[in-house]
Design a protein that fits this description.
508 residues, alpha/beta, Ubiquitin-like (UB roll), de novo design (two linked rop proteins), 6-stranded mixed sheet, 4-stranded parallel sheet, globular, binds flavin mononucleotide, binds iron/sulfur cluster
């Protein structure tokens, strides 16, 4: 009874939100989103990567600042300050022993099913379907794969948490909301190699016992949205989706859900509420989505890049994957370098390379002879890496130990043109604009810190204001409900710790 109710509620949500820009959201829900009426096409971007590159084109940046609604990250950070989706594809380079995530892209696009199959596509799924679900779960466990969406949670453990729930309706969701300014990894994975995501999701559905999946694509990625829909049609026609996948007893259906423009919808509980058609405020956990997720059912939610790793792992074995990387961060990571580098673009590296290697060897230093001032990886709601910590290796624990993180893997360098107080004002302006408003420290604190730093930039702030900022940041760190508020606090703490000489003189 309950199942059929859920199914009909799911179907009506599917119908009402099927197309990009469909204006069928409930009024109280629609008011949450920034881009429910479209509005970003051809607009200039004011994300952090473009902020750091604004001196290359001040006119375009001024244009971006006039946008209402604001446009925060178009996934074109390699060409910042960016406008529209008209740029050529960014360079793709594999700098690891295995090109697990970007290997096919480095050779060109593999959009069509035939092209993907010629490169071994869907062989992992065909093999897995002849084996047991436990075999897939054990392989993912052994790989040591951790989520690439930011938190680095062990993927095998998450899959087992869903698989161990009682049989019944379960869901698999790919988080393709990639809103971190500076990150354009998932965008190009989906646009240029969509079947790898689809195969990874079908394998996930098989392993955890799910029969339905969604790919939640952000509004700012219309090309990825359309390409994925076409790829799903191809996969369905080839028998990889629908009833009796690959001629087996396993059935799995998959569809694209188009977002409406909200950074916080990348947070997992917010994303689930968004698909349900509810106002997507963040929910307290527990219960976790693995137990009570979409429409109250057990749900596996993984980042796009996480799922991209799965076909390779199933084909080559968990041990082969775990042999790459270092420490507790196994395998490879895709990185996207912003336009301040001499060689911006997409890179695949093994965990363990240093931040200096990424900046100097891969990125080739800064464009136009700029002087590096710091790097933000996986931001902007994450700690900044100052120059004296560039030898820190890329690893979940290693970067967390210096107050930074792997995040989503977007790498934004900033140079002498970026004033640190202006950077803080920019990041908190973004934070306040995107706060879901569910908890007070983030809702009130982000706006107030932004206001104080705007005053500081204008030369109108006191030492008392700086102390107020410190207190607000502590409150946000300790009491925010989700990573948006705590991430903003981590960003601010790192700035206050590493750049006091630029901050303190602004407060008289
Ligand atoms: C404010 C906020 C935004 C987030 N945005 C994304 C996102 O765009 N993509 C993503 O994969 N994860 C994002 N996350 C993390 C997700 O909540 C979740 O941890 C992740 O998708 C789980 O997948 P994984 O285990 O494969 O990393 C965000 C988290 C927060 C707090
Ligand atoms: S920290 Fe911010 S985004 Fe997260 S629940 Fe609280 S108000 Fe919402």
């Amino acid at each position: 009874m309950q199942e059929s109710g859920l199914a009909s509620s799911m179907n009506s949500t599917q119908e009402t939100n099927r197309t990009h820009g469909a204006h069928t959201l409930r009024a109280d829900v629609e008011s949450f989103y920034h881009l429910s009426h479209g509005g970003h096409t051809g607009k200039a971007c004011q994300g952090t990567a473009c902020f750091a590159a604004r001196h290359f084109n001040p006119g375009r940046w001024a244009e971006a600042m006039q946008n209402d609604p604001r446009v925060y990250c178009l996934g074109e950070c390699f060409a910042g300050p960016a406008k529209g989706q008209t740029k050529p594809r960014p360079p793709v380079r594999v700098s690891s022993r295995e090109g697990i995530v970007l290997g096919r892209l480095a050779g060109g696009r593999v959009r069509a099913l035939d092209a993907y199959r010629q490169q071994g596509g869907y062989a992992a799924l065909a093999a897995a379907l002849k084996n047991t679900t436990e075999a897939v779960l054990a392989t993912v466990d052994k790989s040591g794969l951790r989520g690439r969406g930011g938190a680095g949670f062990p993927t095998g453990r998450k899959w087992r948490a869903v698989a161990s729930q009682p049989p019944g309706q379960k869901y698999v969701i790919a988080n393709a909301d990639e809103g971190d300014a500076g990150a354009y990894i998932d965008r190009y994975l989906m646009e240029d190699d969509p079947h790898a995501l689809i195969e990874g999701m079908i394998l996930a559905g098989f392993a955890v016992g799910a029969s339905k999946g969604y790919i939640y694509v952000r509004a700012e990625y219309p090309a990825a949205d359309a390409i994925l829909r076409a790829a799903l049609d191809e996969a369905r026609a080839a028998g990889w989706l629908g009833a009796r996948v690959g001629g087996t007893e396993f059935s799995f259906e998959l569809e694209v859900y188009s977002g409406h423009g909200s950074y916080v919808c990348g947070e997992e509980t917010s994303l689930l509420r968004s698909i349900e058609g509810n106002r997507p405020e963040v929910m307290a956990r527990p219960p976790y989505p693995t137990e009570r997720g979409l429409f109250g059912r057990p749900t596996l939610l993984n980042n796009v890049e996480t799922l991209f790793n799965i076909p390779w792992i199933v084909t080559h074995g968990g041990e082969a994957y775990a042999a790459l990387g270092f420490s507790k961060s196994r395998g490879t990571k895709a990185l996207s370098l912003n336009s301040l580098f001499n060689r911006p673009g997409l890179y695949e590296v093994e965990f363990g390379v240093t931040v200096r290697h990424i900046v100097e060897e891969l990125g080739g230093g800064l464009r136009g002879g700029g002087t590096l001032k710091g790097v933000i990886i996986g931001g902007p709601i994450i700690g900044v890496i100052p120059l004296h910590l560039l030898d820190t290796p890329l690893g979940f624990e290693e970067l967390a130990a210096i107050g930074a993180g792997v995040g989503h893997g977007g790498v934004v360098a900033f140079d002498e043109h970026t004033s640190i107080p202006e950077l803080v004002e920019h990041v908190f302006s973004f934070g306040a604009y995107e706060s879901c408003g569910k908890c007070t420290p983030c809702r009130g604190g982000s706006g107030r810190v932004k206001e104080i730093f705007a005053n500081a930039v204008a030369g109108d702030a006191t030492k008392g204001d700086l102390q107020e900022c410190r207190d607000l940041v502590t409150a946000m760190k300790l009491t925010s409900l989700c990573g948006h508020g705590t991430g903003l606090a981590r960003f601010a703490e790192s700035i206050l710790r590493h750049y006091p000489k630029e901050i303190e003189p602004c407060f008289k």
